[in-house]
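Teaching note: in complex prediction, the entire set of molecules is handled at once rather than each chain in isolation. The prompt given to students was simply: 'Predict the structure of this complex.' The entities are:
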Amino acid sequence: MRNTKSYKRIMRIIIFIVLAAALLIGATLVLTPKDFSALAIYGEPRQSLDAVFVGSSHIMSAISPTQLWHNEHFTSYVMYSWSEPIWTSYYHLKHLLKSQSPKVAVVDALGCSYGQFSFMPAQVDAVSNEFSLGMPMSIDRLRLALTMMRCQETKMPFGTYVPLIKYHARWQYLTIEDFTQIFAPKSSSGKGYGPIYVHKEQMQPQYEDKGYVGTLNKYVEEYLYKLIKLCKDKNIKLVMMLSPHVFAEGEKEMYAQVNRICEENEIPFVNYNEQELITRTQFNFAEDMAEEEHVNYHGARKITRDMGEFLASEYALKDIKHTSEIESIWDKDLAIDARDEQNMDIRLETQPNLLAEKASEEGYVICVSTKGELNKAGKEAARAFFTQLGLSDKILDTSALQCAAIIENGKVVAENYGANANADAKCYDKSFSIATSFDKSSICIDGEEHSRDREGMNVVIYDKVSDKMIQSLSFNAFDNYNAFTA
Amino acid sequence: MLFTSLKFAAFVIIALIMYYAVPKRIQSGILLAVSLVFYASFGKRYLVAVLASALSVYFAANIIERIHNTEKAKLTLVGKSADKAVKQQIKKHYRALCRIALGVCLLFNLGGLLFLKFYPIAQSTFNTLLPKLNLVLPVGISFYTLQVSGYLIDVYNKKVNAEKSLFKTILFTTFFPQIIEGPISRFSELAPQLAGEHRFNYDSFILGLYRILWGVFKKLVLADRLSIFVNKLFDNYTEYAGVILAFGAVCYTVQLYADFSGGIDIALGVGRLFGIELAENFKRPFFSKSVSEFWRRWHITLGTWLRDYLFYPLTLSKTMAKLGKLLSKRVNKAMGKWVPAYISLLILWISNGIWHGAGGQYIAFGLYHGILIMIGMALEPLTDKAHIALHIDKNKKPWQIFSIMRTFTLVCFGEMIFRCNSLAMAADMTKRMFAKVNLSALTDGTLLKLGLSGAEWTVALIAVIVVLLVSIYGRNKCVRESVYALSVSKRFAILLIGILSVAIFGIYGAGYDPTPFIYFKF
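The expected output is the structure of the full assembly:
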């Protein structure tokens, strides 16, 4: 009798613990952010990647998998986290290899510089604590947390790495995707590539031509060897890569040590900071850098092209055949990515006539609404804009007329001029409605206001492919028709 | 090691495993060991203070008992036939010796407590006269000092026998669930339990866990959430309208209750896991119909301690009796009756304030409640007459609700004084509260700029409602026992909701600073 009671109690406790654990795990899955690259990669079909790039924001900004698909026709993904130390790369790759069998793994050598120069522990640890564990809940994640506790110089309690403790405060920011993407992460169309569309001129670092000798952090060395072993065990070709950035001479010594280990293990170390590769890729520090650390999208094109050619030739990754489903996904993502780049090009354009030219291509709708007196200094720029779009520029010579116009695929579909001018049109199932007067500019897409409502020309550009309003700016009549986006 | 930390949970689990795994006769040894480890986790040097306190009380209690025994022996020796004067002489002599022992020990403990609390303020005021000392108030000193002092006075009054074991005296002083913020236990209730042998009791254990969960809910979901708003408001009170300050006072009162009673729930729950019942410290205080009733339901163990060891001895002292007689003779009987009681009350409430801290705001807080209670007592005959004249039935619901609301308002104001950093701040805040009321500030989005989003306020409101409903339900029944009596599925559902609520809506982990219990600093 007593035994039966005890048995029941034990069973109840076990059931309760299981239920509580299930609920807490469920809550963790919902509350964990889904936008980590090391999570989104699991949205790719299983065993569909030919190559994988693992590392930090350096590799994220330098390699475009869709460009690789376009140039060499092999599939890849950039699995990155900010300031990623080598042990994070190791566990990210280790876990990925349970669902993917890439032929090549390209690992960012920046993770080897942990504890040195610009990769100082205090900063790296803080960033790594925030982002390294953005991977699926698994034993590998637990091991990575324990490794971080062991290897990082900034020691944190284990609770720091428990996802529920870390992310529970997100309850008030949850979106529908947090529930729908629990078991089916959404892959990004850019495949982990993060183009940087800014430019900051940099001096190419000059180093003496001498034999550098350096040392690595002991844990870095340990995990570099583990990484090499992992790839050997899984029969994957490992490539170490370092994207161009401005670094101190001391780092050269440290990377010489990485290079030595790579040579010992017959692993290529593609260091885009070496003069030979800079020459080969025609990389220009003056034009191709976003800042000291990252390449911009011009630089990324050069690095991606070169890396693609290298991988295709060295590892037979040229024109890999995939199922029609995968081919179709990649072709679609390539188109989206190309369009995103095109959209970004439009967004960065501040010359009125060039903007008009770029947005006159297929799939764009340009809405123009003027306001106030347009007969001001610098109106030649505005005139070029009107001419480029095929609109009448007569309003620029008076002080009483306004223009409302809608241009679809470079063709004017609605235009009106007057003290109060309206234009309405239906393009790609969207209702565009423009109303303008001396003191009011309104541009609505499906009833939603987008106009900057400034003196001068207010322009809104809609992209049909991404189904987004991609730009809203004004060319200010009081400031020589310069562009303002605020 | 905060009660709400994972470290504390792991600590309790390890302690429990050891406690129930060892032979029962050494269970108290385990309790002492874990208590000392727990206390040392706040700083090893604090151990010196608590051990000094326990040692002093141990020796003083045994000396007093020995004096009592010697007195008894002497009285026996002189026999029944002895002269009454001789007996009086003996009693007087030994009473004096006892008083010396008691006085020295209380001076060491209570005097030490007062010194630690007042010296920093005195030093900052008379910095040219007094040297700067690097004094640190040991964690929980206000609680264990009262606890051991109460024990010593009980020994002096022959209510309890002195503990012969130093080890048990130390355990009574340092028992880990209660040393940080109470409850202030009585020796007669706690010591036998600590010394006793405890078999694992499943039902009691589970009820202990329920209580811990409830305490953690109150602390993490409600108290720490409101603390974000309250801290921002009190740190920048000059920027806000009177109505926001008044709302802040209400929120602080709720925060303080959830924080303190939550901590006590955890302490009592943990105690129960070890088979030890600690004294209750709260009894639905916000349902009190008067301030004096409130203090019989809020921080009960402090209230009863001050009543038993300060108020009664003062009121019944010879000095007060003489004063009463004098006033009866010279003024009138009523004065002779009430003045000594009022003086004792005033001393009690000032002591209550000082116990919390040496700052003017604490003394004002004590005085405020003391004066409210005295006014209530003085006006009672008048209000009784007014009730009769106005046909107000004090037992009817509307009057009771009014009384509850009135008491709550008065308490909130008192707690606002308590929360201020100084008496000057309390005065300034009070002035501003009434000077610029601006009711619209409640709805113009100001509340959303003080650290809590709309969603956070919603969670806080739901938590308040849950606490309120549990309090209402707990009027006649023990909520935990009612939950325990439910069917397994219902019980599981309630507990899982509780666990999930704490896990998701608790204020802990990344993005939040761990908030110590408010009474931790006393």
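Point out the following to students. DSSP finds 20 helices and no strands in chain B. Chain B touches chain A through 21 residues (CB under 8 Å).
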